[in-house]
Backbone:
């Protein structure tokens, strides 16, 4: 099986320092704010991002050491496959959150409704486009 290398484009600063402190999903963060610091070599890629109210942030669950192929989602007592859940314990430890973009200044993105731990590596950012991303 071929392996792929993914390099972080930045890191996020959040109020959540330890596992278990962050909300399960961005929508449950009670407006928690954070700052994504994009590494200098990727700053040009931010051009035009300020036009969007929300962004999709792909990140790496860097503190997880294992994965599980089944999960029991909150509010359920039925097990299902990890790919049918939002569990962070995934084979590739990749997370996705839609956050509100408050401000873009140089290489810093001020965002609201964060659910990542402080220092989490950001691996990609995309604009959230309602007509495309919501069916």
Residues:
């Amino acid at each position: 099986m071929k392996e792929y290398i993914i390099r972080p484009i930045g890191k996020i600063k959040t109020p959540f320092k330890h596992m278990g402190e962050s909300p399960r999903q961005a929508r449950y963060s009670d407006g928690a704010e954070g700052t994504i610091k994009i590494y200098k070599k990727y700053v040009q890629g931010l051009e035009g991002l300020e036009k969007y109210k929300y962004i999709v942030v792909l990140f790496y669950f860097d503190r997880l050491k294992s994965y599980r192929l089944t999960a029991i989602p909150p509010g359920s007592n039925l097990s299902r496959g990890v790919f049918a859940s939002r569990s962070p314990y995934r084979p590739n430890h990749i997370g996705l959150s839609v956050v509100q973009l408050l401000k873009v200044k140089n290489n810093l993105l001020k965002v609201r409704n964060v659910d990542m731990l402080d220092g989490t590596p950001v691996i990609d950012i995309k604009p959230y486009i309602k007509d495309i991303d919501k069916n």
Residues 43 and 107 are 6 Å apart (CA to CA). The helical segments are 130-133. Strands lie at 10-13, 33-38, 54-60, 70-71, 80-81, 94-105, 108-112, 121-127.
